[in-house]
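ugh finaly. both done.
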Amino acid sequence: MARQAASAAGKPGEEDFLLELQADTAAYFGHLGQAREFSRQAMGSAERAGKKETATSYHVVSALREALFSNTGKARQAVIGRGHWAGYDIDYGFALALAYASELDRARVLAEDLNKRFPEDTVVQFNYLPTLRAKIALLRSKPAAGA
């Protein structure tokens, strides 16, 4: 992994992707501090390459990772000031991170917003929203409400 990342260093469009893969690998092995640093570098590299939405997607993954590792404070911080995107993938990722960080009301608001903005989108209606609603219902100890 280190060799591959080194070979991509300074190459716009490649460097950010390999740094994000390094972040995922570090997190997998429990090295969350390293994962944070690699994600920060990946975001910076993507921004320098003019790939703002890609940088934001790395930000989403980092927020979700923090929530999954029960670092709810860091997950919440990552979502603050996230901006608003026209696409649903970024908003879904932030909503899922909020749900895993037990910010259920904020996750529900984002889910409702996705529902309003994309009422006929198959991915949103049949994948993203059921997942968000189920996670929120489980955390509220009402599993049947997510169906």
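ok and the 2nd:
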Amino acid sequence: MWEMLLGNARDLSLSFTNVAGGAGYGSCEWVATYTFTPTGRKVTNKGKAHFFISEGKIAEHQDDFNLWKWSAQALGWQGALFGWTSALQSGVRKKARRNLEKFIAAKATSL
């Protein structure tokens, strides 16, 4: 997911703080600032990453962030008004999943 996001990002800025780890597990807090391409709106998204490292690579990774706050910035008044609803959040997750599946398929065919 991060490879896809970084590859498509416009004017992306990332910062990391509170990096911690031990016994293969790690976490950090992050702030990503970028322009959300579909709407052209500026987004500052704050989150926390949890990951597991195996054989020197990230084997598992989960990000937590406030999807309502993200949707208000990325989608404007519609996101602010409906961003808390399961319907909008589910739609955002499904679209992200579809985009990721397309990205993975395209990458596999280019190898």
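summary for the 2nd one i guess: The radius of gyration is 15 Å.
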